Amino acid sequence: MFLAKVLEYGSDAFKFGLAILILVLVHEFGHFLAAIKMGVRVEVFSMGFGKKLFIWKKKKTEYALSAVPLGGYVKLAGDNIEERKGAPDEFLSKPVGKRFAVIFAGPLMNYLLAIVFFWMVFFLGFPYLSTKVGTVKEGLGAMQAGIMAGDRIIAVEDRKVKVWDELSAAIRSYNDKDKINITVLRDDKEQVFSVMIRQHTAEDALRQKRRIGMIGITPDPKEIIRKRYGFFESFRMGIKTAVDMTVMTYRAFGYIISRNLPLGESVTGPIGIWDFFASAETVIDFLHLTAILSLSLAIFNLLPFPALDGGHIILLGIEKVRGRYLSKKTEDILGQVGMGFILLLAAFVTFNDLDKKGMFSKSAELIIKPFSQSQKVITNGGNNQTQK
């Protein structure tokens, strides 16, 4: 497979760049298609920003490849008050509903791309942790019953389990002090253990504390299995995954606003994303990570901040209520505020990513260590003189 070979020999930067290229192209193509459908003239469709390196013109649209490959844009005719001439194919000449469709189409295409890529991942084989036990914790039901590291759990009561997610869901469905039969495979022989459930307080994926049933085992992180689904079942799973992740993301926003979830622990910037793609060794890994990133991009773009698609949609709503455009001065102020917010957020997530990688602690160590050594020399020197 061509993509597999490309990923095998491509550098980390290439993987990251390829994912960004796909996401930007799909996003801008959404705006482009919607504009054409709504009768809006597209003046420029550019991949990248800055100086145009390659230009190809067809009909009334200029297609360009620009020097800075960190995004792209679609320039619509008459998309601001100063440039508007009143032609019927200009963006601002269209009713609010059609302009909404053009703006919303970009995030929508990213969302649909995420569903398609999730669909492909489930069809090719979604990566799951197996049911092989990695560690057994002292004082809990599994160790007391005799389950050991290396055992492979194949059933909880009469419920067959093939991956760790299924095993966790089965165990968590029981109450405190329930006793359940767990079937394991040890040395190619099936054994059944009667294990007591104990409920403990644990943090979920959003760092919220929950009371869940546990038996005191963790998976073997080295054993990954690929579980394939049928064509139509994969499509259903792709939609479900996208919807579940959307709900979780908006729940996370709610927790951040209510200060129940630290912002630094819930966001990742370009450096963190780069690290994720560096670990993508197969086509499935690449598709999975790109799907997650595409979904995140769609949701982020719809946040109600100026400079984002969601901000433009809010302004359309205000225009609809007022019955007229906002003034150019007001739009400029809101745009500057929105851009300031984006830059501050970008700076924060970059700082956060560097902090997670320990860059600041290492830098501090490089600064403090020579100073400490010099102080030690001075102190030792003084002691030596005293002893003399």
- Category by helix and strand content: alpha+beta
Order of helices and strands: HHEEHEEHEEHEEEEEEHHHHHH
Q: Widest sheet: strand order?
A: 6-5-7-8
Q: Can you count the helices? A: 11
Sum up the overall morphology in one term.
Answer: elongated
Total beta strands: 12
- Stretches where pLDDT is under 50 for at least 5 consecutive residues are 371-379, 382-388
Portion of residues in helices?
A: 40-55%
Rg over alpha carbons = 28 Å
The major beta sheet can be summarized as: 4 strands, antiparallel
Fraction of residues in β-strands = 15-25%
End-to-end Cα distance, whole Å, is 77 Å
Overall mean pLDDT = 82
Report on this structure.
By secondary structure, this protein is an alpha+beta fold. 53% of the residues lie in helices and 21% in strands. It contains eleven helices and twelve strands. A four-stranded antiparallel β-sheet has the order 6-5-7-8. Strands 1-2 form a two-stranded antiparallel sheet. A hairpin with a 2-residue loop joins β5 and β6. α3 packs antiparallel against α8 and α6 crosses α8. The radius of gyration is 28 Å and the shape is elongated. The C terminus is likely disordered.
